[in-house]
From TrEMBL:
All residue ranges annotated as the HTH cro/C1-type domain in the record: 14-68
Coiled-coil regions, chain positions: none
UniProt xrefs under InterPro entries: Cro/C1-type_HTH, Lambda_DNA-bd_dom_sf
Highest taxon of the lineage: Bacteria
Record-annotated membrane-spanning stretches: none
Organism encoding this protein: Streptacidiphilus cavernicola
Name the UniProt record assigns to this protein: Helix-turn-helix domain-containing protein
Length: 132
């Protein structure tokens, strides 16, 4: 895994933790003392948070900082998911990337809920880290 993939992994985990906490990017930004733009950039993988900011983000969503770090062996947020789930996640993520402002905040709630459900199910089934 290269640095770009690693940063994207952090972003995916921050996004998943934020959705699990049922927060908007704006709410997470306020709780962590960041701007919404920084949260958007971190979630998209365009910006890697320094350790202190990573700890602030983790505290804001009630997880440990290590929970936001991907394994160096992790291939992608959809690796290990059943093909149908992986396609659904990629479809929603693609639609989110096409949005001009904050990726998931502007999507219909049912889409955000669907992504959160898939990511939660993947975690519970041990498939989010390439396990099957």
């Amino acid at each position: 895994m290269d640095e770009k993939e690693f940063n994207a992994g952090i972003g995916a985990r921050v996004r998943a933790a934020r959705l699990q906490a049922k927060m908007t990017q704006e709410q997470l930004a306020r709780r962590a003392g960041l701007t919404r733009g920084s949260v958007t950039n971190i979630e998209s993988g365009a910006q890697a948070p320094p350790p202190y900011r990573l700890a602030l983000l983790a505290e804001a969503v009630s997880v440990q900082p290590a929970d936001l770090l991907p394994s160096l062996a992790q291939a992608s947020p959809t690796s290990g998911l059943p093909a149908e789930w992986a396609n659904a996640v990629r479809s929603v993520m693609s639609a989110a990337d096409e949005q001009s402002s904050s990726p998931l905040d502007d999507l219909p709630d049912r889409w955000v809920d669907a992504v959160a459900s898939v990511m939660t199910a993947a975690e519970e089934n041990g498939t989010s880290h390439g396990k099957s």
